[in-house]
Design a protein that fits this description.
3 helices, binds zinc ion, about 45% helix, about 90 residues, mainly alpha
Length: about 90
């Protein structure tokens, strides 16, 4: 280790840093770290109230009219004639 090297002392358990370390190492997260993380999250949420997660808009159901359904059926049947004049 040369001069100026940042000491890599792992964060002690019971800190959010240790929680992330557990996670990144794929270790089981101990209760102390979990608590610390929960507290951190609560503080964070208190500071920045997050609005409801934006919901993905539901896809609009496709409702085919009789004619459209007929065209689609013809298309699937392979005998759709293009340019037959939409009405
Ligand atoms: Zn821990």
């Amino acid at each position: 280790m040369g001069p100026g090297a940042v000491s890599r002392v792992p964060a002690p358990c019971g800190t959010p840093a240790a929680y992330t370390r557990h996670r990144s190492h794929g270790e089981e997260i101990c209760a102390a770290c979990r608590d610390a993380w929960n507290v951190r999250c609560r503080e964070y949420r208190a500071l920045r109230p997050v609005p409801w997660k934006r919901l993905r808009p539901e896809p609009v159901p496709v409702v085919l009219t009789g004619r459209e359904a007929a065209v689609l059926a013809a298309h699937r049947g392979g005998d759709l004639v293009l340019g037959d004049g939409a009405s």
